[in-house]
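hiii so my PI (J.) wants the whole complex modelled not just the main chain, which honestly fair. so below is everything: three entries, each one labled with what it is. i double checked the lines twice but i was tired so who knows lol
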Amino acid sequence: MIKQFFKTVFLVDLLQGMALTFRYNWTKKIITLQYPDKEKWVPYERFRGLHYQAVDEEGELKCVACELCARICPAGVITIEGYEDEKGNRRPSVYTMDLHRCAYCGLCVEACPEDAINHGAGYEFAGFKREDAVMTLDKLLKNKANEKDPEKMGTVVSARFVRDKDGIKVIEDGKKRYRWW
Amino acid sequence: MQEKVTCKNVEDPRQYTIEGSLKNGGYESLKKALSMTPDEVIDEMKASGIRGRGGAGFPTGLKWSFIPKISDKPKYVCCNADEGEPGTFKDRVIIEKDPHLLLEGIIIAGFAIGATAGYIYIRGEFFFGVKRLEKAIEEAYEKGFLGKNILGKGFDYDIYVHRGAGAYICGEETALIDSIEGKRGMPRIKPPFPAIAGLYNGPTIVNNVETLASVPFIVRNGGAAFGKIGPEKSPGMKIFNVSGHVEKPGSYELPMGTPLREIIYEHAGGIKGGKKLKAVIPGGASTPVLKPDEIDVKMDYDSVAAIGSMMGSGAIIVMDETSCIVKSILILARFFAHESCGKCTPCREGCTWMAKIIDDIEAGKGQDGDIDLVYDVALNIFGKTFCPLGDGASMMVRGAIDKFRDEFEHHIKNKTCLVAS
Amino acid sequence: MALVTLNGKEIQVDGGRLILDVAREAGFEIPTFCYHAKLSTLASCRMCLVEIEGMRKLQASCATPVMDGMKIETESPDVVSARASQLEFLLINHPLDCPVCDQAGECDLQDLTFKYAKPGGRYRWKKRTFDKRDMGSTMTKEINRCIACRRCSRYCEEVSGDFAITELNRGNALEMGSFYHSPIESEFIGNTVQLCPVGALTSSLFRFKSRVWDLISTETICPHCSVGCSITSESKYVSQKATHMLQTQHLGKTPALEKTEVKILRNIASDGKGVTEISLCDRGRYGYHYINSDIRLKAPMVKENGRLVESTWEKALSLVASKLASIKAEKGAESIGGITSGICSNEDNFIFQKFFRNVIGTNNIAIPGDYSLSRSSVLRLLAMRGQVQWVKTADCILILGSSVGTDTPIVSMHAGMASRLRGANLITAMAGENRLLDTTAQKRLNYVKGSELTVIGALTRAVIDGKLYCESFGGKRKKELDVVEAGLKGINLKDLEVLAGLAVDDIESTARSLSEASKGVVLFGDDFIAGEKSEEIVEALYNLFSLLGYRGEKGQAIFSPASGNLIGSMDMGIAPDYLPGYVAVGSKEAGKAPQEKGLDWNAMVPAASDGKLQALYVMGDDPVETASDKDKVKNALNKLDFIVVQDLFMTKTAELADVVLPALTYAEKSGTVTNLEGRVQLLDVSMKPRVDGRKDWQIIRDVAQSMGAALCFNDDLRIVDDGEVEVLEEISKTVPHYAAVTQEAIGRDGLMSDVSGIKQAALKTVEIVGHKKTADKDYPLQVVPGRDVFLNGSMTWRDEGLLELSPGPRILVESSDGAAHGLSDGDVITVETKEGTLKGTVSLTDRIFPGVVVVPVNHPELESWKLFGGKNQETLGRLAK
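here's the output for the full assembly
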């Protein structure tokens, strides 16, 4: 009882805790990510991130507008309209994903017979307008920047936070990259 | 020596003219037949027990009796002279050397079933045969054996020669009929059989050249005389075409039931250069191959069938020890792939596939399991095709693999041929 | 009867039926590719093999009839493996391009492979490929996908008879294609697309537009001719968020989306419904693009300062109402006329005539056209409502006039089929183009256009001279025969050659064939009764058919007009001299309706010119464009005080109008239409309206309401949007022969209206004077007005699909004439007649007689009406390069 009293008065528990904190501060690796100001997390390869449309070696869309992704999508995210291009190939004239509804289940990627629709590594979906989350074909092509690079997956990369008229962004500068564990 | 039936006068150099033919007793049977009733002629045919010489071996008398006596459509006789089976050249002998014998047979057949016209569907490549036939028909018209009121007996009959355009399938009776009608030569659905609705929807009989050329003999000597020759179940004389590695390849008219060994070694003079026999195809391309230990078989429909092959058209192809079975089978497989009419799925797709697989095996590109694959493909074709063409291709391939599997395996394993050639 | 055992289950069936049919009926599934109930048996795909006890091999169930005591196995191990092996064979050369194949989703090969094939493939060799070949503007051939079921070639051989697609090459190289890969010329080729079980033949117009599972199907009726084929219109929400729309629709929710747009993407035949059997003509199949068109009227328009400007419905309706009311008050009801069109539905036309008779108070209503018939003639036409089914089973068919072939291709196709497949005696008598190729017709007669009456007179004369009439006319109806004969004094068969260009033998043998037939059919279309003498022609036809007994058991006559609902609009009383149900104006039964006969279209034009007519209400017609004398009509309309047009497009007539109101297409409204048989059929809403338009009858109702009058629903003013049911109720109450008509009774097969209660007057004498064939050395050729199969009216002219399909306006010249003039296909020539000249592209054909030049009159681009002096009758002419 008295022991407990002294322990409380002299803040032993607190000091013990602080000791642990200080010990960790000096002995263990720092695991706090400085996101979004200084660092950014690159997820593992299996991560199902922002979709993108792949292109072939000649820079042509891989998508053939077969609508299998639209068919399998449990949330009705994808809208496709096909047309016949100059070469006689089937291509999408409209390919829109309304990511508000998307559950990132990955069925569309599974269903794609042409490996056209893919999950990238991107996870920054936030925007100021609803339209920001509606991915048109152009945006999906731009999203290719988020393509997964097996070398870089599961790393932390140095980044910088930018706010401009287009919104907010976290831009990787790639100066520093390390595995976090 | 048994009197020959169809090749009796082929040695006579003037036999192809009507004078030559008449000198040797041509059209005597026609005179006799026209003095009989049609039913009597059919009865003689039945009594003779003759079986169709085209390959299937269907009793001819029975076939004729299927023709309805009364029909509101004209009846026809079609002579199948589309001799396309590789290794077969028996009809050509008759057409070129003794066309009048064939004409006589067609006229008697027409009389027997009450037909108004006969069509000879002849293989397009037989230029010479066509010429001879057309000349013979012209002569027969002049002598009054064809045309109106033949021999004053009130029987009207015409014969037309129709040249094929080079399709093996047109040897199939319904495809032949389609081709005469000017359509694509593709087999028709049976029933209705041609005996009920054949050429131009009229009752039609389709008979092989050799069958029809045997008719004058049967009418002249009676069915019983023909039936006495050879085994009871498939009587008569048969032309055997021996080709391949023998000393004396050619056509031999012999009684049914002559042992295959006798045909090869006695009549055809044995294997060329005294080499060893390796394989015999007993009845044309679509019949399974026989091994040397099987050649004691008697050549008649039932005996050959009993050992798992077919008598077919009697085209005996002899292969000696220097020949590669895989290569031979490849040639035949390509033949069937090329000649498939394309109507039904298994034959159209399967024959080409088989040819492709065997091509790979032969070229040393075969893979393990290819033999089983081609065997399975052949099994999938067999019994599912529209007409017997696919069945023939299937049997041929399976027969070869059954008996010479080691050669196929050698091709796959060593990527070379077993025989040094 | 036969007792068969199917998979161990004993069933009693009719002997001689196919195993396939019996098994499917009994609930056992047998897969097929080449089998089609309406085509001949081929038995080539070998998918339907079954095992029959006692038979050495598997048998094709589509070709084997059942026999008593048969024991059939459809699921035995042999059968199952046979199916799997057939699919393997088919797939070795079939490209795996389902993702880009339009057939995916409705592909038999896909479905059956999922169901019956073994997994995995053993084929590692190169697939067989063919060169890509052009198959014309409506069809894309991906022949690598072909499984050689030959449905297309059998269709072209047996049904359409044009041999457009046939087999080329042999064996594994078997390819379906046009002969020598020549361009396809066929108005039925679209059917092969629907028949193809795989994606070998696909529609170019539907190509890549949608997946079939996204389509919403609606069964409705084709509006393009009076046959009234049952079609399935397939539409899709084409928009940025199409899929949401589809999926939420299944959930029964309406999504809140900014913009949706519905488009009809294809029409397919509803096989077995109504009059339809496999076939649609390409006009019906591809004639849906005008619905999706952006040039449709989008909002009401009102003329301000000489220009039509967009306005609102309220403004436009009140303007129409006030203007009509003031004209009626000032100049009387007789100064207002109304014209409607043969494509509007029964509801539209019923409300239209009700508005004119009850609200305006005039009988000035008509349908403009090449002929206008009085009540007595229309009643005669009632007796000429044969059934399409008859054409299929007839043993003697006479076709009068080429418009049967061009306007109602399906009827003409059935006639050709009857001739080809069953050996029916087909006789064609035409002045112009003969769409039934010469190989089909047993006999072709060529009469001089304008001598139709003489042709009928000659046939009647031949019937009387040869005593080929029904027996009763020799006996107790002798008097009636005398009545008919009295008019034929001017007809002497010997003069015929000079008169109508016909051989006596032909006429006599035709009359004999018709008389001897056990089941005869006579078909005639618009062009046969067109002209000034249409009344007499109809009457003379009626006389002829009465003599021949073509009024029921022995034979039938079929009038096949071009307009989809012309028969229905006649039933609805769109005429100046009779009310719905053919009640004569001024008779006791007419009730409250105006007692005086109104003006028909031919009378309205002069009345407009001299000021008797002040206002014209136009519903769905374009008289300025379709008239045979366009200048005259245009000048007359220009003199009118007030014109209201309700239509789909800014037509030539609409340009003259003071108020233009946007209407809706057949796809956007429900209602009923009546086909040439008198079969009342149901339109269904395939899509929500694409424009701010209203149904035709709604517009009239709204005008009436604005005028302070009620029109329907028991004189109740309530507004019901989908009030077709109520209108139909009123129709069935008013029109006696529609008494049984309700939407439920009609169903998808239609309901025959019963016209037997309408009494025909006794036979009348028709005075026939032989038509004199004129000749002119300077003008050696006969120039005949013809009609284009694909472009035959205001909707089709604005239809992208049909414009692509049609080779364009072509002047048809017979091959030998063409050779004599040194012409080849595609040359530009000038046709000169006394009345005018015309420049156009020439097409050489064997479908017309030598010495005849056919100029299409239903092409707005080709100002062919100038050639005929405003009469659309044959004239003499010559060709110049």
